Amino acid sequence: MKQKGKLIGIIAIVLLLLVCGGIYTAYRLHPENFIGQGEIITRGEFAAILVRDIPLDSSNAEKDPPSFSDIDGHWSEKNIEALIDAGIIDSADYPDGFHPDDPITRAEIIKMLVRAEGKDEEAENTQGHSGYDDQADIKDEDKGYVIIAREDGIIGEADDNKIRPNDPVTKGDAEDMVDKVKPKPTEPTPSAPAQTPDAAKPSPTPGSTEQPTPAPTNPDESKPSPTPTPGNPGGGSGGGSYYPPAQVRFELPETAHTDSEVQVMPIWKYMKRYIWTLTKTAVDGSQQPMELADAVSGSLDLEGGTIQFKEDGQYTLTATAKNARGKETVLSKQITVYPVIDLSFDLPETTHTDKSTTLTFLLDKLYGHDITWTATKDGETVKPDDILDGTLGNEGGTFVFRNKGEYTLTASITDDTGRVFTHSESTRVYPVAGISIDLPAASHTDKTLDVKTVLTESDGLSVTWNLIKNGEAAVLADEAEGSLTDEGGTIRFKDKGVYMLSIVCFRSESVGRMKSWITF
């Protein structure tokens, strides 16, 4: 039994060593398979994933010397070389070495996947706006690839509309992008034929000259010229280079307003020169050219821009693109710009039920629309006709508030686009206080007077008593004994004379006054 137990233990150890050795060998040859979906991947790991998924044969891909000195002996060397042979990795993108163990960025992956689709040449000749909010973070040489990748669905919408081109990528995100690629059929890269020193160079096409890349007066002219397509090779007797026609694409909203910003995001392909032009539709239907700087705030360039139209009207924005041969491609988009309707008006902060208010609107500033008036009283919705004496219409009107309260008037217009313009003003309406004083017409200095007052609608009002003696202002306390309140009181005048006693009720302004004369 002991021998049998020992044998089983030895077998278990051997099996364990074999399993561990197999796992180690698998990890050493394919470490990309041991990375979690949420982990950041390196260039070497992505190269292995891409070679596996395209797929490419990397068995004989090693070179001596290697394409990059820092991949010599690296576990992913064959994968990297296979991608270089397939034109998916461009050595020019990595002048300082490939650094296979560094994290790979989203922009690097996008470039490799676009090349895997066979669209490297198209991407090199694509410019403009990617449609992402972090467009400025995308390197100029990468923008064409990002545009193509978005067109092909390799990348798509983001919650915050940002691509984050320079961020590292997780394995899961990388594999999602790879899964959306439709790789072109792979062909072995032909070896360049050996040439002897005396080998004749191909003669130029008679009557044609090579198109040099001009100095970049437009930012786009630093891009390479379109290359001849395989079906139309350049050079050789009787041949000619084929230059694809320029392409341009952009969108405009059908409508806008003079206070709204319009973002123009063009995409250009095979374009060497471009120009933006603008026309405005006149009353007779003709198109009148306009300078962009005169018609809009903002500007348009290679990547478009954000503009705001200064005046209402119907406009046509045109992008003209020329290819390397000067052939034009023209795209025009129309937009109708509506005015912003100003419904501003003022109400006094406070008013009274005996004061009229006048509002005025210019009909031509309403652009043919009718004003809808609404109102609230003390927070409750009411009909304007129920609270006002007078009229309110498109031209405004003159009216009086019937009763006290807190009021809000609102003017509204809905234009042809469905946009609602509103303006509201509030006012506090006070009643007119009623005041009366009961005094005898004459009295004597030895007689006490009962002063009686009657106040109506006086809630919250302050009351003061004033006195005039023989035509001059006097102080009541100096001229009479006793005191007066808002309900009156008892006083006795000390000296003879002609007195005028008045009561004033006020809030922030005088709202009630009553005078009474008495002679002594």
What would you note in describing this structure?
Strands 3-11-10-6-7 form a 5-stranded mixed β-sheet. A 5-stranded mixed β-sheet has the order 12-19-18-14-15. A 4-stranded antiparallel β-sheet has the order 20-21-25-24. The model is unreliable at 19-29, 188-226, 228-238 and 509-516 (pLDDT under 50). The radius of gyration is 44 Å and the shape is elongated. Strand 6 and strand 7 (287-290) form a beta hairpin. It is built from 10 helices and 27 strands. Helix 2 crosses helix 3 (77-85). The protein has 520 residues and is an alpha+beta fold.
In summary, what is this structure?
This protein is 19% helix and 30% strand. The chain is built from ten helices and 27 strands.
Helix/strand layout:
Elements: H1 2-29, H2 43-53, H3 77-85, H4 106-116, H5 120-124, E1 126-128, H6 140-151, H7 171-179, E2 247-249, E3 255-257, E4 262-264, E5 267-269, E6 273-281, E7 287-290, H8 292-295, E8 296-297, E9 305-309, E10 313-322, E11 328-338, E12 350-352, E13 356-360, E14 372-377, E15 380-382, H9 384-387, E16 388-390, E17 396-401, E18 405-414, E19 420-430, E20 434-438, E21 449-456, E22 462-469, E23 472-474, H10 476-479, E24 480-485, E25 488-493, E26 498-506, E27 510-519
Parallel strand pairs: 3-11, 12-19
Antiparallel strand pairs: 1-5, 2-5, 4-9, 6-7, 6-10, 8-9, 10-11, 13-17, 14-15, 14-18, 16-17, 18-19, 20-21, 21-25, 22-23, 22-26, 24-25, 26-27
Helix pairs in contact: 2-3, 2-7, 4-6
Oligomer: single chain
Structural class, please? alpha+beta
Cross-sheet strand order for the largest sheet: 3-11-10-6-7
Query: Which percent range describes the beta-strand content?
Result: 25-35%
**Cα-to-Cα separation, first versus last residue:** 144 Å
Tell me the number of helical segments per DSSP (H or I, 4 or more residues long).
10
Query: What are the segments in which pLDDT stays under 50 over at least 5 consecutive residues?
Result: 19-29, 188-226, 228-238, 509-516
Mean pLDDT: 84
Shape: elongated
